[in-house]
Design goal:
single chain; about 900 residues; 10-stranded mixed beta sheet; 6-stranded mixed β-barrel; about 55% helix; alpha+beta
Amino acid sequence: MFSEWRNKTWLRIKALWKRSQLDRDLNDEVAFHLAMREDKNRLAGIDPQESRYAARRDFGNPTTIKERNREIWTFASFEGLLQDIRFALRMLHKNPGFTAVAVLTLALGIGANSAIFSVVNGVLLNPLPYKDPQQLVAARHTDSLLNVIDIQRLTHSFAQGGAIDTEDMDYTSGAEPVQIQAGYVDAGFLETLGIPPMLGRFISPEEDVKGGPRVIVVSYAFWKNFLNSDPQAVGKAIMLSGNNYTVIGVMPASFTLPQYHADVFVSLWVAYPEAAAFRGVHFMNSYWRLKPDVTLAQAQADILAIDLHLAEQYPDTERDRRTHLVPLQEFVVGHVRTALLVLFGAVGFVLLIACANFAGLLVARTMARRPELVIRAALGAGKPRLIRQALVESALLAILGGAAGLVLAEWGTRLLLSLKPAALARFSGIQLDARVLLFVFGVSVLTGIVFGIAPAWSAASADFAEALKDGGGRTTAGPSSHLLRKVLVTAEIALALVLLVGAGLLIKGFSRLSAVNPGFNPRNVISMHLQLPPARYADIPPQTQFRRELLTRLNSLPGVDAAMITDIPFGGNYVNHSIVVDGRPPVLVGAEPRVQTLSVMGDYFRVMQIAIRAGRGFTDSDREGQPLVAIVNETFVRRFFPHENPLGARIDWGRAKLPHNWMTIVGVANDVKHSGLGEPTDPAVYAPFSQSDEAWRRWMTLTIRTTGSPSGLVEEVKKQVWSIDRQIPVSDILSMESLMAISLAQERFNMLLLGLFAALALTLAAVGIYGLMAYSVNQRTHEIGLRIAMGALSRDILQLVVADGAKLAFLGIAIGIVAALALTRMMATLLFDVKPTDPATFAVVAILLAFVGLAACYIPARRATRVDPMVTLRYD
């Protein structure tokens, strides 16, 4: 098919060439037609002599005449387009400066847009990598495994369902103990997502029971890194947290979890039976696959009925719990959608500013080529012909800009991924795929056509008859061209102001967020995570012995000011508990207030440098066998003891066994931002590890305050841990300052990107103003020369030129302020302690943009004051 088309095209081009050698009259048209017909017949295998006879015989046939006219028009248009492209390429080659500036301008806008679109595409647009992802939904809040089992049993809406929680496990089959992430699942979780294992099988329902066999499904990364990509890995035994597990399956490389990360998957009933059997522990994320004929609304109604049934049956733990279902795509990316769309809108503004500059460059170039256009019009070129030529040139420039922008997009995407914002999900889906390439091509072509139409129309609409009276030599722009450039520059300023206001709001919000007092001193503090394996530390006495011996050793090390074990701020590993207060009216079971609970051992408040506002801190006497004590924070006091002295009051955990084992409040500590700097402070209760009866609480964060740099102590701390138990890994080694920086990663990412785009927009707007004023000065050289000859001073000329630019700048600022007041409201969820209409930010940005605009006008204005009136008048 292609070879036939190629042969036909070649023969037709030969016929066109033959026609070009003949005079343009009817006889030549006949010769042209005969040549075309002979070539067609020859291609069809007809005898040459018969071919010539048939061509002459059919020449007067009406059908042949229509066909002949259609062929002539088609190939004349095709040849004309090729000629326009060749001519445009020659003109761009002859003007490398203009070509480079135009291509670079578009490359910046298209490249930035493509980089952000690759993120939006990978995170928001690409479907989730699961079977029929549109049928998958997730519960917005966590639940207990027993509740998940009851939903599976009672539901009418779900074909499948399952739940997962990620926890630490110790891999001790290697040379050194390593902490890995384990997905504690039920038998339905992996089946629900619908991705089959690469090797082996899933955990069966018969294995997902208390006391069941210790079997495990491993991720592709674990199989590759720890099992050496062994194709015979299924059936092998590995040691995890002191127990042997048999590998029964390996997931493929493409498999990822909707949230978080897991190296292995084990049955919760087998690995953590204490939590599996406790309905009041709501810690698992549940996912459900809708039946084909069930809508989300129907499933929500179904699960609400189940919630009400469970609340009636188990009021102590389920009284006020309600499950809210959302599509899995929304669950995974909903928290970053607003930020990404704001950034995508911002780079869209950058592209519009770049396109306005591009259109301004085309207008200026059209005016400079006015003599050429006059001559072409005089030789018979009509308005459609001139418009087509101009559009071909702008489209070529846009395509070149798109190609250069694609290179910038590749670099930009790598830069974005290197920043690795903590909240940005689905990193693996971010790449320059076919959809991104199509986006770049579409934007490029659309830019060339849309922003080339106005300059092309301006070029074709000029009064060439008037220009011919002056010999075609004048290049003065018409009123429409000058007005077009003014409109473009005003739009650039308005768009730049919107971006600058958005960036200013984010910067101000981030500054205020960073200045929030966390309630402790993070300097010279290092933390690391430890997890005691249940095989050797199932009970509280060995747990307490390990913690106490480790702290004794660490506190004796040189360079250690103090060490303690706790749940640290920003670690996310504290537990919420319900409480009751002694002497208060009884509360319905299941309706007790909930507070943060943090178990500590060692001098916690000295290590973190948290002030004790009343009472005392913990001492060595607060240990097992002694009266139970607790320390509460100031928010706890404001909520539960607003007009009382809390010292000496007694509290206990809600739903504890009767009679109550009361804890006496012995101190009030300063509030600490445990959940994040931007989050409200919750009531908190600190209790000693040694007085805890929670044997399942085997995780801990070792925290050390040093007298100097903490990094030098890491290896020594590991040695001390391994001297007590060689099989306990030390992981997540971070300074508190780094932990705080990680907690602000998403806000910093948004601020840096929007600030970068705003700076780029400001630069492009300044270039646009400068270009317009420089062009205006060049066009008004004759007028300025006359003014100087008539006695105008330099300051008068300076004022004249700057005033023109200032009018545009202030008009653009006014329009931009109105637009920003409307658009910045979309950013409300991204701002901390700053209103989207913050007057100070608007004022500072307006002043900055006015200063930049006036500065861009000043340079052309200074050049105007140096115009030599004698030269101007002599030229005129």
